[in-house]
Amino acid sequence: MRLLVERPGPRTLLQDGGRPGLAHLGVSAGGAFDRAAWHLGNRLVGNQAGAASLELLMGQLALRAVDGDMLVALTGAEAPLTVAGRGVDVLSPVLLREGELLEVGVPVRGLRSYLAVRGGLEGRRVFGSLSSDPTRQMGPAPLQAGQELLVGTAGREALLGTDLAVATGGPSEHLELGATWGPREDWFAPEARALLARGTWQMTSESDRVGARLDGPRLTRAVTEELASEAVVRGAVQVPTSGLPLVFGPDHPTTGGYPVIAVVDGPDADRLAQARPGCTVGFRPRRSRLELRGDRGPLSPAARG
Fold this sequence. Notes:
Elements: E1 2-7, E2 11-15, H1 35-44, E3 53-57, E4 61-66, E5 70-78, E6 81-83, E7 86-87, E8 94-96, E9 101-104, E10 109-117, E11 121-122, E12 148-151, E13 174-181, H2 190-198, E14 200-203, E15 211-215, E16 230-231, E17 236-238, E18 246-248, E19 255-256, E20 260-264, H3 266-271, E21 280-285, H4 289-293, H5 301-304
Parallel strand pairs: 13-21
Antiparallel strand pairs: 1-4, 1-12, 2-3, 3-10, 4-9, 5-8, 5-10, 6-7, 6-9, 11-12, 13-20, 14-15, 14-21, 15-18, 16-19, 17-18, 17-20
């Protein structure tokens, strides 16, 4: 079975669980940005965990079923969904018959939707994954009109193991992100650390899968020396010379030369996938090792080793 792309949308990517464990090769894990929405879509259509689906940026996708009927589900950003011109439910398994056109509109809330197909999507794997990583030009390119997507056969014989979804009210216009201090919080002035724990920033239009660029109050450093490049992870809150925090997403670089003041918890880092420009963001980091030992100010380069 196949899906014919009649309208690809602004930026629709094939995504699965990504490529974890390859940072030493300069390859970030990537994969679905909103992992909760991606997992839910696969559960709704009864797929095995890890099946590849489509990640839609601002919807506007049109696909036609070719060579058979198939079961699909739309999760993530709340967008209108139609099959053969009739409105159908999101967060629910939907039958798409051979020849019918499925259309996803512009989300009313959120930014990224996920379209799962019974059997998962197939293609050429790179380092064991089907995930698109346009930053590194790795994996499939963004969808193009006229392209055909191959639907897998795994689990297609019997419709078993599907799930039910509970509506959560959709993405919020304000995000409170749990985080863990460090590893370089001691490079920042005490007032900057206090500001991170109580301030708010706005998501900018320059944000993408590499990172969420924020605008707002600036975080001042206590240590102004150059930092040797070191490993960074998804959710790392890096602070460049501008003082404006940048929260890394799934396609982040594997190393960076600016200090990381905190790391956003995994599930909360996923929530950034749905944050539109203008959404406000706050951080709620846990107590740091500086607070636990009594804040004696930034460590000297010699003491840091």
